[in-house]
Amino acid sequence: MAEPGKSGAILDIFTRHVAEKGYDGTSFSGVASELGISQGLIVHHYGTKARLLEALHISYMRQRIDEAERIVAEFPAPAERMAALLFASMLYQVHDRNRTVAFQREVARFAQQEETSEGRKLRRRYIEMLRNVLESGVVSGEFRPVDGSIRTLLIFGAAQWAWTWFEPEGRRSAEQVGAELVDFTLGSLLVDRSSLPRLSDPDGPIVAAVIEIITAEGTPKELPDI
Prior knowledge:
Order of helices and strands: HHHHHHHHHHHH
CATH architecture of the largest domain: Orthogonal Bundle
Oligomer: single chain
C-alpha cells in the first residue's frame, strides 16, 4: 500500500469500504478517518466520490483484461481458454476479494454509465474477449453453434453475482465452485464432452496456470488518470 494520504492508499481503503458497505454506505469521512488524513486531501487526489468509484472500476477492469490476455495466450484451444477464464472469475473472489466484491456490488451502477466512458469501454473489451473465445470454439468445431452475444453476456453476468453467496471460508473452495461453473458452461457448449473432466478439474493444470497468472508479481494495478 502507498504511504497514508497518497492516492493508492485512498483507493485501497475506499475499495474495502465499498466491498463491505456498498457505494452509498461509503463516505470520504470514513476513508479519511481510517487513514488519519483530511477529507480535503481525498478531494485533492480524486475530486468527487463518483470519480473515486470510477478509478476503482477502471483499475479493476484493466487488470482483468491484462490477465485475460495472458490466459488466452497460455492456452491453445478455445475450450481450455474458456475453462481458464471461468476459473479465474471465481478465483478472484479469493485472490482479489475486496476489489472484486466492490466491483460486483456496483455493477448495476456501472451499467448506467455513458457509452463513451472509459469503464464502459473496458467492460465491452473484456466481454468481446469472451465472445471471441466462444465464437472461435464454434468455428473450430469444439462448441455447438450458439448465439455468441447472448451466451457471452450470460457467462459474464453469472460471475457478477458470486459476491452475494460465495464465502471464502465456506464449505466449497473457489476452485471447486469454479469447477462447477466450468462443467455447467462447457457442458452446454462442447460437441464432444469427453474432455470435460479434465477441463473442470479443480486440482488440474488449468487451475494451477490461472492462479500463477492472477497472482504473478508485477501484475499491473496502475492508478488511472481520471
